[in-house]
Amino acid sequence: MTKNDKVYELLIVGGGVSGSALFYEVATYTDIKSVCLLEKYDELSLLNSNATANSQTIHCGDIETNYTLEKAKKVKITANMIEKYCLQHNYQDKIMFKHQKMAIGIGYEECKFMLKRYEEFKELYPYLEVYDKQKLEQIEPSLIFDKNGNGRDEEIVGVGVKDEYTTVNFKALSQSFIDNAKKNKDVQADIFFNSQVKKMTKKDDIYMVKTKNKTYKAKMVIVNAGAHSLFLAHSMGYGKHFGQIPIAGSFYKANKHILKGKVYMVQNPKLPFAALHGDPDVTLDDNTRFGPTALVLPKLERFRSGTYMDFFKTLQLDINILKIFYNLFKDSQIRNYILRNFLFEVPYFGKLAFLKDARKIVPSLTAKDISYAKGFGGVRGQILDKKNQKLMLGEASIDTGEGILFNMTPSPGATSCLGNAKRDVQIACDYLGKKFDKKKFEAELEEEQK
Ligand SMILES: Cc1cc2nc3c(=O)[nH]c(=O)nc-3n(C[C@H](O)[C@H](O)[C@H](O)COP(=O)(O)OP(=O)(O)OC[C@H]3O[C@@H](n4cnc5c(N)ncnc54)[C@H](O)[C@@H]3O)c2cc1C
């Protein structure tokens, strides 16, 4: 067999944190003997999994006030996998970091909500603590004092934890997945960079995956191409019941530690994205980064040219999509939110508008304290469910049952990378007639922390 005739058992499209996690699990927990990953760019995780593209948060559901208890139970399991993986490989303070974290309620209604939520969630997260104003003065003073040193008038309460792993550099995590996968010399684990998949077809049970210079062959394909996954699915005639709207997120950064840890706010349940928050950024010496914003953008990649046509094709504009937009826009709160997020991008005025919102967290914040974080941010490919005429808030996956899967991974897709990969290796092993070592997986990545 010449090299060109090589048929991989599994081919993964996309070298973000999802594709890399899957590559690792295939090499570590299955008896699949050959796996190949094709990445469009010359490095792993240059798009949404880049450390500057996202908020670096392990979303485990304890302070995410927009998660129901049901959703929190699910994300807790996958978030725990990240922590277990990093502890197993000794990545503390290299890839995974500890910061204090909390969600705050401001004013009577939000404080009442936070305390009620605490009661409901404390069994699932027994480490959670309630911080009153006095305690917050000690542990996160910027939440309390204005620039003249006066205390905040409104009621405020925080619910959080001081000593848990909260933060991950997901790009570094991706690299570690690949490095560790390659340690298994029994598996042919190949990665090809600068290999954008242009076309995929199936011939005699084998997928032909075409890049500019070469065609790769595989028995099965899993597409983890972030905002591009649905585009590739559509190009093969799958997932036409979904459209996609790219929502970019930008950030403002400070050049000091304004906050000691992560501070999230209460989510307006009508709004599709997490409320603005402040986080220590591990790429900026833990200086505080505020954001993200939520800006509708007609392209699939934030800081690279092109992909406008890909956006338009993936939107799948028709009467159902228009109906979804109409329903979103007719709600004044959502409409104002969308328009305000456009404003955040406008030089000078954007900063003033953002400052007003960020002062809800840090009352003393001034225009001098923050600057627009150029080059930071990514694109959340939010899925539009045409059948039910709804904007879907989380991730989505298309399992065609024909040996090809497509994963769409808006937030918290980085946190759930190992959990999603577990689901996919099980599907792959069933399809290929291979074994998934579930026991080893559970022992290493799932058992409860002591
Ligand atoms: C502003 C913002 C904040 C976020 N904050 C968080 C957070 O705090 N915590 C969290 O868990 N999640 C967060 N997320 C979500 C998280 O970033 C994503 O869910 C995650 O990075 C998705 O990883 P991925 O590998 O699936 O996709 P990506 O990281 O987008 O990777 C896809 C890869 O596929 C490649 N690719 C695309 N098309 C092709 C092709 N045709 N051929 C070959 N390769 C291709 C791309 O080059 C890229 O490397 C945030 C997202 C945004 C935008």
Word description of this protein:
The protein is 31% helix and 24% strand. With 450 residues, it is α+β, with helices and mostly antiparallel strands. Strands 1, 2, 6, 7, 8, 9, 19 and 20 form an eight-stranded mixed beta sheet that branches. A four-stranded mixed beta sheet has the order 4-5-3-12. Helix 1 (17-29) packs parallel to helix 5, helix 1 packs across helix 11 and helix 2 packs across helix 11 (417-432). The radius of gyration is 22 Å and the shape is globular. 45% of the residues are buried. The model has no long low-confidence stretch (mean pLDDT 94). The site of flavin-adenine dinucleotide has 42 residues, from helix 1 and strand 17.
Assembly context of the chains: single chain
First-last Cα distance:
51 Å
The average pLDDT score comes to 94
Structural class: alpha+beta
Query: How would the global form be characterised?
Result: globular
Helix share of residues? 25-40%
Bound molecules: flavin-adenine dinucleotide
Please state the CA-atom Rg, rounded to the nearest Å: 22 Å
* Number of strand segments: 20
Q: β content, as a range?
A: 15-25%
Reported for the largest beta sheet, the result is:
8 strands, mixed
Count of DSSP H/I helices? 12
The residue ranges in which pLDDT falls below 50 over 5 or more consecutive positions are none
